[in-house]
Design a protein that fits this description.
The chain is α+β, with helices and mostly antiparallel strands and 197 residues long. Strands 1, 2, 3, 4, 5, 6 and 7 form a 7-stranded mixed β-sheet that branches. Strand 1 and strand 2 form a beta hairpin. Helix 1 runs parallel beside helix 3. 41% of the residues are buried.
Length: 197
């Protein structure tokens, strides 16, 4: 198992790549590429209530650094323009354990791996059994109000998380939805100053 700087070993890393080249009878140019990297770790608080979850937050930095680097490499030579994050907590844990691992500490690592980002990072957490499915929301990394980039990636994790595990997920995409046409702020109009517009 790979040891993280904060002492939470990564047991498994899962990766996913989804490339859309055609949608609704139209070519997608350039293709939409979405990637996800998932770290499976043991949950030190499974089966017991602990008030202070700061050790999970601290551990998320090293875990995030590793999986975000993997995800960004999967996108190469393309670059991430949108992102999202998620966690699935095994059934002996609490949803809050996943939230503790997706705070600003993890978010800043995601932004750094993407070459920067001003926008709040959309997220989803839940408890789930092995083989759980989760929808991870995506939004533009520099401006939350860019409707064309409201999207998501659906993952099913094989044999994870086990009851005493947590799955931490980082997702990136290279462009907005295929055939988007609902108006709003376009990516070319982003000011990138406040993370909204």
């Amino acid at each position: 198992m790979a040891e993280t700087g904060a002492g939470m070993p990564i047991k498994r890393i899962l990766t996913f790549l989804d490339e859309t080249r055609s949608a609704d009878g139209r070519d997608v140019v350039p293709p939409l590429r979405k990637v996800a990297a998932v770290a499976i770790v043991d949950n030190p608080f499974a089966g017991r209530f602990v008030e202070d979850l700061s050790s999970l937050t601290r551990a998320s930095e090293a875990i995030g650094r590793e999986i975000c680097a993997i995800a960004v490499r999967l996108l190469a030579p393309d670059h991430a323009v949108s992102y999202g994050k998620a966690a699935i907590v095994g059934t002996n844990g609490e949803q809050e354990h996943g939230n503790a691992m997706l705070t600003t500490v993890f978010g800043n690592v995601m932004r750094e791996a993407a070459g920067g980002g001003k926008a709040w990072i959309s997220s989803m957490t839940k408890r789930g059994a092995p083989g759980a499915m989760i929808d991870i929301p995506l939004a533009h990394k520099d401006a939350l109000y860019v409707r064309s980039h409201y999207d998501g990636m659906t993952l099913t994790l094989p044999d994870a998380p086990q009851p005493n595990e947590i799955a931490i997920i980082a997702v990136y995409a290279t462009r907005g939805r295929p055939n988007h046409r609902v108006g709003g702020l376009s990516a070319s109009e982003i000011k990138g100053q406040d993370g909204l517009i």
